[in-house]
Amino acid sequence: MDELLAVIRRLPFDERLRLIERAAHDAAEDTPRPGAVQSAAPSLLGLMADEPELVDRMCSAAYDARDTARMRTVDD
């Protein structure tokens, strides 16, 4: 690696800059990118489409919790 750096340092300044820009560009092109992100989260109902009884129980539990929950007051 030291030999490579010595050769690069002997290049004229403009050529060194072009070499560095090209190396940076090539490295960016070769860098793996994460997969595409979905714009919306998957629906819980869609994830449990084959479990209708479980969805019914979850909805029932959510409604029960909502009915018994104390709502906090909002100060103006």
Q: Please, could you describe this protein's structure?
A:
The chain is mainly α and 76 residues long. It has helices at residues 2-10, 13-30, 44-47, 52-68. The termini are far apart. The mean pLDDT is 81.
Rg: 30 Å
End-to-end C-alpha gap: 67 Å
Q: Which ranges are low-confidence, i.e. pLDDT below 50, for 5 or more consecutive residues?
A: none
Count all strands and give the number. 0
Features of the shown structure:
rod-shaped; 76 residues; mainly alpha
Describe what is shown at a glance:
By secondary structure, the chain is mainly α.
Write the layout of secondary structure elements.
Blueprint lengths: L1 H9 L2 H18 L13 H4 L4 H17 L8
